[in-house]
Amino acid sequence: MIDDRAWKRCAEFHGHVCGGLAIGFQAARYAADLLGRQFSKDEELVCIAENDACGVDAIQVMLGCSVGKGNLLFHMRGKEAYSFYDRESGRSFRLLLNDLPEGVEDTMEYFLSSDYKDLFTVKEARPFPRPAELFRSYRCACCGEMTGENWIRLVNGEYRCLDCIEEYDRFNV
Ligand SMILES: [Zn+2]
Ligand SMILES: [Zn+2]
């Protein structure tokens, strides 16, 4: 059975209810079950999502893995897959959404009424990401705005931010 209050909180945050939100909701519940913990106040829980669709909103609400805290990261592969890491216990795993059975018409209803253990395959987590680095800042000679050196290019000997350069790619005509 789903926890109605939790689902409502996800819907409020996301703005509507949909099948994608239900996937993230069930992934978050499964992860909490496997890890034996709930909401992450700090950064003890880390999630790497392989898509940036509706489901990640439920993960933010349910588990406290959020963009702003830096414990929700994106490894964009367009897959319905989420790796979770518990920094305290060292446990980690990846939840990959199983194929839908044929004939499912209302995906949201299907995801919400299924046992989350039947919805996902538990796999090995992706490698844990490198720690965030601090970069020196430089001023773009074109727009005058500051940005980190990882996002700076040299154009005619001047620093440029990525919005002020033209990409040079001879294979992309
Ligand atoms: Zn949605
Ligand atoms: Zn610029």
Features:
alpha+beta, 5 helices, 2 domains, 9 strands, 22% strand, 60s Ribosomal Protein L30, Chain: A, Wheat Germ Agglutinin (Isolectin 2), domain 1, 173 residues, binds zinc ion, two-stranded antiparallel sheet
CATH architecture of the largest domain: 2-Layer Sandwich
Low-confidence stretches: none
Question: Helix share of residues?
Answer: 25-40%
The H-and-E topology, N to C, reads as: HHEHEEEHHEEEEE
Shape designation: elongated
* Structural class by SSE content: alpha+beta
CATH topology of the largest domain: 60s Ribosomal Protein L30, Chain: A
Give the biggest sheet: 5 strands, mixed
What is the number of strand segments?
A: 9
Distance from first to last alpha carbon = 54 Å
Overall number of domains: 2
The CATH C-level name of the largest domain is: Alpha Beta
Task: Please state roughly what percent of the residues sit in beta strands, choosing from under 5%, 5-15%, 15-25%, 25-35%, 35-45% or over 45%.
Answer: 15-25%
Cα gyration radius (Å)? 20 Å
Small molecules in complex = zinc ion
Nearest-integer average pLDDT:
93
Report the total helices: 5
